[in-house]
Amino acid sequence: MTFQFFIGGYFSGHFEVVLKNDELNFFVSDFPMRIEHEEPTHIVSIKGDIDWQNLIKYIADLKWKRKYETEILDGIQWELTFKNGNKKMNCYGSNAFPSDFGNLTTLIKNITTKHKIPDELVEKFIM
User: Fold this and answer.
1) What domains are defined for the chain?
2) Phi, psi angles (nearest 5°) of residue 60
3) Residue 14 in contact with residue 30, Cβ under 8 Å?
4) DSSP state of 40
5) What is the tens place of the pLDDT at every residue in 86-120?
6) Is 21 left (phi over 0), alpha (psi -120 to 50) or beta?
7) C-alpha gyration radius of the chain
8) Under a CB-based contact definition with an 8 Å cutoff, are residues 3 and 81 in contact?
9) Residues paired with residue 89 on neighbouring β-strands, in sequence order
């Protein structure tokens, strides 16, 4: 399975979560992009995690377009990469979002809250 979600902007830093070996690696920073060799700020096991399972079920049913964009260059960019069985997604946006984007970020926030990832790190990026 592949899962990676990124959201951030030049003036707001970034929030990224990447699945590696049954763990979610969170990268939260005031810098606009993750540095290649940067260590995660938090690591969370997803084995048996119901919130993780809910997130995967939700993504498996998504029918998002490949890209969401506006003509505005500065602002918030995001990307979702997901592969599980027959479901494969790679979609992104620049200052534009699918109408149900908030559902995705709420499911991610459920995980961060349960694992006590400090709200001030997450609230800035999760809508």
Assistant:
1) 2-121 (3.30.1560.10)
2) -60, -25
3) no
4) P
5) 899 999 999 999 999 999 999 999 999 998 887 66
6) left
7) 14
8) yes
9) 82
